[in-house]
Design a protein that fits this description.
Mean pLDDT: 94
Low-confidence stretches: none
Shape: elongated
Number of helices: 15
Helix content: 25-40%
Number of domains: 2
Bound molecules: adenosine-5'-diphosphate, magnesium ion
């Protein structure tokens, strides 16, 4: 029987705020354990939480970018459970009236876009970290993370494969980075997800019970967990069994999922309205201002690059990958209308430069006006593209104030279209390869490329290719 995989995600995004969700503790990553804490994050009696305006602003920003409806009156709730890394004994979250509902994120699968619906987004705080691996009989608790502001984005079960999950998480990371909502760093846990997986026979319209794999912090692990779970669930069904709803842990070392606990009922958490925080009310003006301050979003930028500037899917996808590259491209084409050449230059030279130097494009030494001048030199046939984008560009990187044309002259790289010079070279080539000339004259016209290559070598790269080709064709007749 053929089966279909059904997946819904609960994505946790750690926000780019300076301080925690309900107190002023520092949220930076990597501090000495238990140094970024206070009486509030330690849950001392008598302390009171205070909502963080920045958390609300970032949640609104992300919600508007995803086309969500924003609840202009949004409330906090308590989710109660006992664990050593949760000193208060409850987590402040949103249950009844989350800040955002609905909306969607489009992912690109091959040539087609697919829309993944968002169920809702709510604000919450993170718990501390328990470390069980440092000593055989003891666990350690680091509360630096306790109270860190998070958003949880819950999708509808619209995803159908590991590839789609990968595409969704990649698009979400790209979006939160564009919006400067989060650094989106999966390795540091700023972006992680719970993956809900079920399998159903093809054609069945209702969903089967799902299993939830907790806290997946890499795309690779997500795919492995999905692969494993799908096989496991199909096997149960093929044997006439029924998949039990469960919470699972995925072990990256073995590639296997194992039960964490049976699904707890929602009321086990005894959600109730947070009495210490008033509702948050967002005005129309607040939403309008937030909306107007949104940057161009990745999909809109992709459409602009492929439609208005006629770039390929490949080029556009690379240029919109992060906002810095997009802005750099948009800046460069203020000075040249050769969009393809501008894209090539960024993709083939600037991005590798950035990678090698572990740097940013904004610190690339050569100004955009000089890059545009370089593109013009090639267009006008004054220098060939290797000379421009290798020799001259390399020289410019060390001498960024020089004019590209002056450098080309200084480096003796100006191409020659001078017909006496070119026909002397062409005659030399023809005299040197009489056999090839015969073949050419018998009809092997493809050899023109060979003659051209030889001529170019003799000119030390300075022959104008178009003029040379014409002269060669003339002499070979
Ligand atoms: P809760 O965790 O409160 O029970 P939901 O049941 O609404 O919440 O769903 C939580 C997540 O599980 C959502 O991301 C949703 O898309 C996903 N999900 C729900 N049902 C299924 C299913 N049958 N198969 C796969 N994923 C599912
Ligand atoms: Mg859940």
């Amino acid at each position: 029987m053929a089966y279909e995989t059904v997946i819904g995600l609960e994505v946790h995004v750690q926000l780019n705020t300076h301080s925690k969700a309900f107190c002023a503790d520092d949220t930076s990553f990597g501090g000495e354990p238990n140094t970024q804490v206070s009486v509030v994050s330690l849950g001392h009696p008598g302390t009171l939480p205070k909502a963080n305006g920045q958390q609300i602003a970032l949640a609104t920003r992300l919600g508007l970018a995803l086309g969500c409806k924003i609840n202009q009156r949004t409330t906090f709730d308590r989710k109660n459970y006992f664990y050593a890394d949760l000193p208060k004994g409850y987590q402040i979250t949103q249950d009844q009236r989350p800040i955002c509902v609905g909306g969607d994120l489009d992912i690109k699968m091959g040539d087609a876009w697919k829309s993944i619906r968002i169920h809702h987004i709510h604000m919450e705080e993170d718990a501390g970290k328990s470390i069980h691996t440092l000593a055989p009989k003891h666990s350690f608790i680091d509360l630096n993370r306790a109270g860190t502001p998070l958003l949880e984005i819950v999708t509808e079960p619209d995803l159908r494969s590991g590839e789609e999950v990968d595409a969704f998480m990649t698009a979400m990371r790209q979006l939160v980075r564009y919006l400067e909502v989060s650094d989106g760093n999966m390795e540091q846990g700023s972006l992680r997800c719970d993956v809900n997986i079920s399998v159903r026979p093809h054609g069945q319209t209702s969903y089967n019970d799902r299993c939830e794999v907790k806290n997946v912090n890499s795309m690779k692990f997500a795919r492995q967990a999905i692969d494993y779970e799908v096989k496991r669930q199909i096997k149960i069904m093929e044997n006439g069994g029924k998949v039990k709803q469960q919470t699972l842990n995925f072990d990256p070392n073995t590639g296997v999922t194992s039960p964490l606990r049976e699904k707890e009922d929602a009321h086990d958490y005894r959600y109730f309205p947070e009495p210490d925080l008033p509702p948050v009310v967002l005005s129309d003006a607040y939403l309008n201002n937030t909306n107007q301050a949104l940057p161009q979003l990745p999909k809109a930028a992709y459409n602009e690059l492929t439609q208005k500037y006629q770039l390929s899917d490949y080029d556009a996808s690379i240029l919109v990958e992060d906002r810095e590259t997009l802005l750099y491209f948009q800046g460069l084409i203020q000075h040249t209308s050769n969009y393809k050449a501008a894209a090539n230059l960024i993709i083939n030279r600037l991005l590798p430069w950035k990678q090698e130097n572990k740097s940013t494009l904004s610190t690339f030494p050569v100004p955009s006006t000089s890059l545009a001048a370089l593109i013009a030199l090639v267009e006008e046939g004054k220098v060939n593209s290797t000379a421009a984008y290798q020799n001259i560009l390399n020289a410019l990187i060390t001498k960024p104030d020089q004019a590209p044309l002056a450098l080309a002259q200084e480096m003796n790289l100006i191409q020659s279209a001078d017909s006496d010079f070119l026909s002397d070279l062409a005659k030399e080539v023809i005299a040197q390869f009489p056999d090839k000339v015969k073949e050419y004259q018998k009809g092997k016209k493809g050899l023109i490329g060979f003659f051209m290559g030889e001529l170019m070598k003799k000119s030390k790269g300075k022959a104008d290719p178009k003029a040379s080709t014409e002269i060669l064709q003339q002499l070979l007749k």
